[in-house]
Design goal:
By secondary structure, the chain is α/β, with parallel strands linked by helices. The protein has helices spanning 83-89, 109-120, 135-157, 164-170, 185-195, 220-237, 257-262, 309-313, 360-374, 399-411, 437-446, 461-466, 477-485, and strands spanning 5-10, 16-17, 33-38, 98-103, 126-130, 177-181, 199-203, 240-245, 265-271, 277-285, 293-299, 302-305, 323-330, 333-345, 353-356, 381-387, 419-421, 424-425, 431-432, 451-455, 470-474. It binds adenosine-5'-triphosphate and magnesium ion.
Length: 494
């Protein structure tokens, strides 16, 4: 019998060495090498699903062909039952694709996928593999979610329907969602082969365990091996696989980087611990755009879709000093968001600048532009800035809104109600054009805003007139703020 070989595997990058080092020579991470004893390769049991089906027959040489002559199959997509999830996936799940969903512990990954699996199970065969929780735990959640869904139906429908869980238990199609509580990869693969479901959920990839490897579940080798075996079977059977992945302390997906390369889409589910809304984003998507945003709200009885997220991020009804409203764009989705600023005399040698939801560097830059081009002595003031609703706004189109909120707080002014500000600030104090202005204006008008301050030369005067929106175009920050506030903020008597 061949001797087992010992290798050391970096838990950060997956590099393997025969010798132990305190620091990985590949990625430079400290203390990341873990000893792993693998049986010599000739003693490995051959797993039928792991073997390539074509391996048995002699390999046919494949010839290249002109790309125009390659046969096309229309891309079919399977609705996930949730419009918000479909939007992020690029229109639905593609058969045979692998989707990895990452997110902080307790954020609602299992809830989202169980709800979606349940919705899809009415149309196709779905297998839910729970490697983290027992069948009983999943059943309890399923019942809670089913009761929540029937409540929503009741609220919308008028007549009180029977609880959905009960209806399902009696109806013949209740066999739609299959549940398997198992951590052994071999058994999961066997079940996938036997059932050949259209969709399978694996919760989670880190909890699966390949008995052929001696390392612990969740280690780089295990995750890589389990994901590769699942990918092979998914491609062969045209099963769409939804994998749950853990994240590290820094919020990155745990496991080897190769996992992200292996899958077709990487989604992240994020949210504020203190707020009930959850945001779903695509970090990578081979079948759609990556900048789309899905918004959900966590309720006691599961996740509900938020189709009008702007209303979630709009703060108080009454405008107050130091608030400004912007229209941010997440992909093709415009979001009307309120910004709040507080400017107060500093009691420190260097003033404090704190920003929540916007990069502090961006705030520093905008304060410098205001100081230089409007002559406001902001370096003697502390400045705090927050985005309402806990949203992260990264795009520069928020600059003008930040400047307006800061100046309004400094001068103790209230912006006229119904005003939105859109524009990027250049270091020279000029207002730069932003993308998707048309979409942003339409969203603002839809929510009842009546004035929009935008960069000069937008060419959208006619659109704005049709939307009953007063369009105020400005070439620079000073001009824009005068238009927005109705007074000159650089004037000390303002
Ligand atoms: N009995 C319950 N009643 C109300 N809300 C609940 C209940 N159980 C769970 N929740 C909600 O669901 C959330 C947990 O969701 P879920 O288990 O789907 O998270 P997860 O991302 O899968 O977590 P993990 O990483 O631990 O698997 C909780 O944070 C809580 O808000
Ligand atoms: Mg879970």
């Amino acid at each position: 019998m061949a001797r087992p070989t010992t290798t050391y595997v970096c838990q950060s990058c997956g590099a393997q060495t025969r010798q132990f080092f305190g620091r990985c020579s590949s990625c430079g991470a400290w203390n990341s090498l873990v000893e792993q004893t693998a049986p010599a390769s000739d003693t490995r049991r051959r797993r039928p699903v792991a073997a390539d089906a074509s391996a048995a027959s002699p390999r046919q040489p494949r010839r290249s062909e002109p790309i125009a002559a390659v046969g096309e199959r229309p891309l079919q997509r399977l609705g996930s039952g949730y419009g918000e999830l479909d939007r992020v996936l690029g229109g639905g799940l593609v058969p045979g694709s692998l989707v990895l969903l990452g997110g902080d512990p307790g954020i609602g990954k299992s809830t989202l996928l169980l709800q979606s699996a349940e919705a899809m199970a009415t149309r196709c065969s779905v297998l839910y593999v729970s490697a983290e929780e027992s069948a009983q735990q999943v059943k309890l959640r399923w019942r809670r979610l089913a009761e929540g869904a029937s409540e929503v139906e009741g609220e919308m429908g008028g007549e009180a329907p029977a609880p959905r869980a009960q209806v399902r238990a009696e109806a013949p199609e209740s066999a739609g969602l299959q549940l398997l509580a198992e951590t052994d990869l071999e058994l999961v693969l066997q079940e996938l082969e036997a059932l050949r479901p259209a969709v399978a959920v694996i919760d989670s990839i880190q909890a699966l365990h390949d008995g052929e490897l001696s390392s612990a579940p969740g280690s780089v080798a295990q995750v890589r091996e389990c994901a590769a075996a699942l990918a092979r079977i998914a491609k062969r059977q045209d099963t769409a696989l939804l994998l749950v992945g853990h994240v590290t302390k820094e919020g990155m997906l745990a496991g080897p980087k190769v996992l992200e390369h292996l899958v077709d889409a990487v989604l992240t589910f994020e949210g504020d611990r203190f707020a009930s809304h959850r945001l779903l984003r695509a970090v990578k998507n081979r079948f759609g755009a990556t900048h789309e945003l899905g918004v959900f709200e966590m309720r006691g009885r599961g996740l509900a879709e938020v189709s009008n997220p702007s209303e979630l991020f709009l703060g108080s009804e009454e405008p107050s000093a130091g608030t400004a409203t912007i229209v941010a764009c997440e992909g093709t989705r415009p979001l009307v968001v309120e910004l709040q600023a507080l400017v107060s005399t500093t009691s420190y040698a260097s003033p404090r600048r704190t920003a929540t939801g916007i990069g502090t560097n961006r705030l520093h830059q905008i304060l410098a532009v205001l100081e230089k081009h409007l002559g406001l002595p902001l370096s003697r003031f502390d400045c705090y800035l927050a985005v309402a609703g806990g949203l992260e706004v990264e795009e520069p189109a928020a600059d003008l809104g930040v400047a307006a909120a800061v100046v309004a707080s400094y001068r103790d002014l209230t912006l006229p109600p119904g005003t939105v500000l859109i524009g990027e600030l250049g270091l020279g104090g000029q207002l730069r054009p932003v993308g998707q202005l048309e979409l942003r204006l339409q969203e603002a008008a839809r929510l009842g805003f009546t004035r929009a301050v935008v960069p000069k030369g937008s060419g959208l005067a006619r659109l704005a007139a049709g939307l009953d929106l007063q369009l105020l175009e400005a070439g620079g920050v000073a001009e824009a703020l005068v238009a927005a506030l109705g007074v000159n903020p650089a004037d000390d008597r303002a």
